[in-house]
Amino acid sequence: MHGAVANGFSRLFGMTMTDLSHEIDASILARVLAAGRATGADFSEIYIEDKRSTSAGLDDGKVEQVTSGRDRGAGIRVIAGDTTGFAHTADLSESGLLAAAGAAAAAAAQGGGGVYTVAFGPMVRQSVNSVRVVPSSVAKSRKVELLMQANDAARSIDGAIVQVSVGYADSMKRILVANSDGVFATDEQVRTIFRINAVANGDSGMQTGYESLGHTMGFEMFDDNDVAELAARAARQAIVKLRARPAPSGAVPVVIKCGSGGVLFHEACGHGLEADLVAKGASVYKDRRGELVASPLVTLIDDGTMTAEWGAIGIDDEGHVSKRNVLIENGVLTEYMWDYIRARNESRPQTGNGRRQSYSHLPMVRMTNTFVLNGTQDPEDIIKNTPSGVYVAKLGGGSVETATGDFVFGMTEAYLIENGEITEPLREGNLIGNGPQVLKDIDLLGNDFAMGGPGTCGKDGQGVPVGDGQPTLRVKSLTIGGTAA
Amino acid sequence: MSAVSTTGELQAIADRIVAQAKKGEQIEAFVSRAHETEVRVYEGDVEHFVSAQSQGINVRVISNGRTGTSYAGTLDESAFAEVLAEARENAELGSVDEWAGLAEPDGVAVVEQELWNEKLAAYPTARKIELTKELERLTLGIDSRVRIDSADYSDASVESAFATTKGIRVSGRENGCYTSVSTLADDNGETQTGWGFAVGKYPDEFDLTKAARDGVDRATRLLGAVKPATKRTTVVLDPFVTASFLSIIGSTLNGEAVSKGRSIFANRLGEAVASPVFTLIDDPTDSRAYSATDIDGEGLAARRNVLMRDGVLQMFIHSSYSARRAQTASTGNAIRSNGTPGVGCLALQVGLGTKSQQELIADIDDGVLIQSVLGIHSGVNAISGDFSTGASGLMIRNGVTAEPVREFTIASTLQRMLLDIVAVGADIDWLPMSAVGVSLVINDITMSGV
Fold this sequence. Notes:
The complex is a heterodimer. By secondary structure, chain A is α+β, with helices and mostly antiparallel strands. Chain A contains nine helices and 23 strands. In chain A, strands 1, 2, 3, 4, 5, 6 and 7 form a seven-stranded mixed beta sheet that branches. In chain A, strands 9, 10, 11, 14, 20, 21 and 22 form a seven-stranded mixed beta sheet that branches. Chain B has helices at 7-18, 77-91, 118-121, 125-140, 208-220, 239-251, 255-259, 320-325, 357-362, 376-379, 414-419; strands at residues 25-42, 45-63, 66-72, 146-164, 169-187, 190-200, 231-237, 280-282, 305-309, 312-313, 334-335, 342-343, 348-350, 366-374, 386-397, 400-413, 421-424, 440-448. In chain B, helix 4 packs parallel to helix 5 (208-220). Chain B is globular, with a radius of gyration of 24 Å. At the A-B interface, strand 1, strand 2, strand 3, helix 2 and helix 3 of A face strand 2, strand 3, helix 2, strand 4 and strand 6 of B.
C-alpha cells in the first residue's frame, strides 16, 4: 500500500505550515480521478483536508476544557449527467482513496465507461492569508491566560455579573483540490476565534451579553485586540439589559448600527442569490437580474478575498480562486453566486462560492464575506431624523425562507428611539421582514462602514465561516417581535 | 452499511487506551465508527448519492482534579498514543476542579432495546433510491400547484465502544433512517414551502403517502397568506413546532446550568412552574423515540426521568459532574462532545391529552395555528427566558382554521408560556428529533404583524 499522504500521525500535533501538495503524490491523485470516471462519469474531483484544532473553555471561573483535535480525510465527487456520487474516507492510502472513488463512481454510474487520463494544469497555490503567528507555535498556557484575563475583566465591571464563560479556538485547515478538468490547487486557512458570554442578575431576572472576535489569521489577532475590552463590552451589554423593557410589537422604523447588521443582508437577499436555490425556483430573486430589487442606496458585495475577515478563503472548496463579486449595484441585481455544478449547467464561469464544511460534505453555493458599501449619511443624523423607532446595536443570528423571502434576525442589544434620541434598552426578540420589501425600504445609509463579528452560516446541515458588514442604516418599516403593545 | 459487527475491535482499542492510566489518573476512551447513506432525488433522477464512512477516538484524562481532552477522526493505530499524550498535556492546563471526575458505575441496569435493525442494515441501495423517487412521485401526484425542492432519504449506523478507569465498559451499535420531502407550491406568482417526512426502524415501515400528503398540505394551505394584525391571542403549536419548544424547555432544566446560575428554574424544585396539564418526561428508554438510546455520554444507563409532573418541577437533569456539584446522583443525561461531556435531555415527551388537533381548534374562538417557526435559535434566550420567533400558519376563527398568515412573530416568555398552556393534544408524532411532537395550546401570546 502506497501512502498518498506521506506524513503519518507522527507529526500529529507538531504543526508547521507546509502546503498539502508536498505530502501527496500527484500521480496517485491522477489515478484516483481516473478511477472516479471509470463508469462513464464526465467529472471527478478529490478534496483532501487536514485540519488541526485547539480549543479552550473557561466557565464559572475555571478552565474546564482544553481540547485538541485532528480531522483528516478525502471526499471524492463524481458527476455523471445530473447525478452526483460522493464518498469520503479517512483512509488516505492509495487503496483507501481508490475504494472511495469506486464507491462514488458506482453511485453516479450512468453506464458507458471508459479509460480516462487526467492532465493537471499548473498548480494554484493560493494561501488566503499570510499568518504571522501560527497558533500551534504559541504555548497553550498563553491561550488559557487569555481566558482568565477576559473572565477577570468581565467580572470586574459590576457585581451584578454572576457568571462568565469564555472560549478560545484556533484551527489550521490545509486543503488540496484536484479534478478531472485539470484543476490542482491548495490553500491553508488559519482561523482564530474568541468568545465571551456574561450573565447579569437583577430584580427582573437574568440577562446575557455576548461578544466575539474572529479572523482568518493567527495568534497575532490578539496584538491589535484586547480581550479584556471585549469582555467588558459583553458584561456591560448584560448589565444594561437588566433595566430593559419588553420590546414593542408591530411594524416600526429600525436603525441598525454599523458592523452589527450584515446578517440582515445575509438573510434578506444573500441566500436568495445563491444559484442552486435560484435554479430550483426556490428564490424570490429568480429571473430578476437587471431589475431594481433594492433601494438605489444599496450596493451588495460578496468577497472571499478580504484577507483576515472570517469568511476569507484563498481558493473555494472546488479549487477555484476566491473572488470579489458585485451582487447588487445601486439597487440593481447584477449577479448570483455560483458553484461548479450550477455554473457548468449555465455554461458560465463560477464565482468562487463552492464551499463545504469538511471533506465529508458535498460542496454547494455559499457566501463568504457579504457586505453593503458605504452611503453618505452621518450616522448621528440617521438617528436624529428618526422621531420614533428602534435602534439595534447588536444583532444575533437569523434565518430565511428563500422561496417566500421572509426572514428573521435576532436583536441582542437594542434601544428605543424617541424624538430622535436613543433612550431605553429593550429585551431580546426577533425582527421579521420580507427580503425584497426590506431592501426597498432602506431609506438612509450611513458613511461608517464596519465589518461585523464572525458568523457560521448553516445551509442543508453544513456550517461554514462567513463574515458580514454594513454602515449604519435605517429600514423604514420592520416588524419587531416583542410583547409590549 | 455493514451487517457485521466490529464492536469487539472498537472495545479492544478503548480498553487498551484506558489500560495505560498511570497511578491516580482517570482515563475515559470513546471509540466509534459510522456509516451514512444519503440519497437526494430531483425531477425523477438521483441528484446526489452520498456514501460516507467516518471513525474517531475521543480521550478524556483527569489528573489531580484537572481535565484535558483530545480527539482524532481516525482509527489509525499510530494516532492512539498521540491522542492520549495530547489529552494528558491538555490536562496540565485545566483548572483544579474539586468536582472533576469520571462517572462512577451506579448499578442502574440498562433497559434492553432493539437499537440495531438487521433489515435496515441489509436494505438494498437500489431500493433506497427507488423509495425516494416514489416519495417524489407521490407528492407530485397530489396537487398540480406543487413542485419539489428535493426528496431525500438518509440512514446512519454507528458502532461504538466506551471504557473508563472506573470500570465502565460498554459497546453497542445503533442504526436509523428517515425520508423527507421539501415542497414548493406556486399560485398567482406567489410561492410557499412545505415539508413532510416519514420515520421507521427500516424503510418498509415508512408511510410515504402521509409524508407526501403533509408536504403538499403544508405548502398549499399557506398560498395567499397575508401578514396578520398585531394582537394578543391563543396559539396552537403544530406537533413539529412543539418539539422545538420542548427542546428549549429541556435545556433550562440542565443541572449544570442550575449550579452555575444560568437557569430560570433554579431553586424552584417542587413548585408549580407550568400549567397542571403539562407533564414533561425525558425517556430515551422508549424505543418509539427516534433518539432512543441505552447509555448516556458517560456510559451510564439511559433512564426515564419525569422532569415536570402536572406542572410541578420534579428534578433537574445531571451528568456525573453536575451531580457531584449539586450533591446528587447522575440522571444519565451526559451528552458527548469532542471535549468534556455536557448535560442534555435525550428523548423528550409529554403526558398526552385526549383531543385531536381538530378538536383542540374547535374549542378556540379566536387564535392561530402555528405551522412553522423561523429563527427560533435567534429569538429565544433560555437564560433571560425571552421567547420571540418568526412564524407562519392559519388563523383560527370560531373553532375552525381560516385564512393563512405569514411574516409575523409570536412572543412571550418561557415561564409565562409554560403557565399559559391550556391543553396538550393526543396527536403524538414521533419525529426524527430528540423531542416528540404533539399539538400544544398556549394562551396570551403576542402576535406581531402589521
